[in-house]
Amino acid sequence: MRLNSPLARYTETIDGKVRCVLCPHRCLLEEGRVGICRVRRNEGGRLTIPFYGVLSSVAVDPIEKKPLYHFYPGSTIFSVGFYGCNFRCPFCQNYTISQHTEESALRTSPPALVREALRAGSFGIAYTYSEPLVHFEYVMDAAKEARKAGLKNVLVSNGYLNPEPTEELLPFLDAANIDLKAWNEEFYRREVKGSLQPVLEFIRRASKRIHLEVTTLVIPGVNDDPDEIEEAARFLASLNRKIPYHLTCYFPRYKYSVRPTQEEDLYPLIERARKHLDFVYAGNTGGGNVTVCPACGQEVIRRIGYFTRVVGGKNGLCSQCGEAIYVE
Question: How far is residue 67's CA from residue 70's CA, in Å, rounded to a whole number?
Answer without folding.
Answer: 9
